[in-house]
Design a protein that fits this description.
Oligomer: single chain
Shape: elongated
Largest sheet: 6 strands, parallel
Structural class: alpha/beta
Number of helices: 8
Pfam family, one: CbiJ
Helix content: 25-40%
Pathway: Cofactor biosynthesis; adenosylcobalamin biosynthesis
Protein name: Precorrin-6A reductase
Order of helices and strands: EHEEHEHEEHEHEEHEHEEH
Strand order of the largest sheet: 3-2-1-4-5-12
Bound molecules: NADP nicotinamide-adenine-dinucleotide phosphate
Strand content: 15-25%
Keywords: Cobalamin biosynthesis, Oxidoreductase
Organism: Mycolicibacter arupensis
Number of strands: 12
């Protein structure tokens, strides 16, 4: 049976683990350990970094195949997975939800980086809501130090924030009524987000649209080349089951 290492931390990774475990695949989901109380998938779970490319390459001795279902902005982990799988000779699949597609009537302003997003937000308003996570908040300090920023995060920020900034801790999925309330209560005049894609955090985009607010959206980083990719959980299930079938045939050939 294929021993699958599933690099997780996303809703898609959990859905994939659930389906593969139900299909009888030996799945180990790997979590970075950033969230104190993560939602756990079916199957085995390991937590914490591998120690770079070399550490991951060594860990791959215990696995036959890898699916990288990390968040679209988790670039280091994806790059490490690509390099380590080549070095260890393990097949790697990238599962990545599609980016969001702008609809008519939505005022989106694309940014190439968080620093760029901060400058755009400062031009567009004085009461931004930041929904870009906590790890990149420092990039927003220079341009938005004097703004009345509301930052929504899962875990508390590790840096000290300017006096006019406030923090709300919450975790998706979110729904439109709550997103409207958040933006209205803060009297937000601009929303900042990453192009995370998916349904979990899409309602804030609808709320911004309803309230006529501009959205600054940080483009996705580039991905490692040469890694086959699928965009939904079903195709990832098929890839793993095909790998599992190949493993069974190899095992049969050994006897
Ligand atoms: P990152 O910058 O790409 O990774 C930094 C380091 O964290 C990696 O080199 C690795 O350490 C460790 N790491 C990351 N993902 C891991 C995993 N699934 N299993 C074990 N170690 C992992 O990642 P990040 O942006 O900090 O994201 C961390 C995790 O949060 C990811 O699993 C991602 O799916 C999830 N997440 C990220 C975002 C986001 O916006 N970035 C949003 C939602 C969820 P070593 O080098 O020691 O192996």
């Amino acid at each position: 049976m294929t021993r699958l290492l599933l690099l997780g931390g996303t809703a898609e990774a959990r859905a994939l683990a659930d389906q593969l475990v139900a299909a009888g695949v030996a799945v180990t989901t790997s979590l970075a350990g950033r969230v104190a109380d993560p939602r756990l998938p079916a199957g085995q779970v390991r937590v914490g970094g591998f120690g770079g490319i070399e550490g991951l390459r060594a860990a791959l001795a215990d696995y036959d195949a890898v699916v990288d279902a990390t968040h679209p902005f988790a670039t280091t982990m994806s790059a490490n997975a690509a390099a380590a799988c080549v070095a260890a000779g393990r097949p790697l699949l990238r599962l990545e939800r599609p980016g969001w597609v702008q609809r008519a009537g939505q005022a989106w302003h694309w940014a190439d980086s968080h620093a760029h997003a901060a400058r755009l937000a400062a031009r567009l308003g004085g009461r931004p809501v930041l929904t870009i996570g906590r790890q990149q908040l420092a990039a927003y300090l220079p341009a938005l130090a004097d703004a009345a920023v509301l930052a929504r995060v899962v875990e508390p920020p590790a840096i000290s924030l300017p006096p006019r900034w406030s923090v709300v801790r919450d975790r998706g999925p979110y729904a439109l009524p709550g997103e409207l309330t958040l933006l209205r209560d803060h009297r937000a005049d601009v929303v900042v987000t990453k192009d995370s894609g998916g349904d979990y955090t899409w309602p804030k985009m609808l709320a911004a649209e309803q309230l006529g607010l501009p959205v600054v959206i940080v483009r996705r980083p580039t991905r490692p080349t040469g890694v086959p990719a699928v965009y939904d959980v079903e195709r990832a299930v098929s890839w793993v089951l095909a790998a599992d079938q190949g493993q069974l045939q190899r095992d049969a050939g050994d006897h």
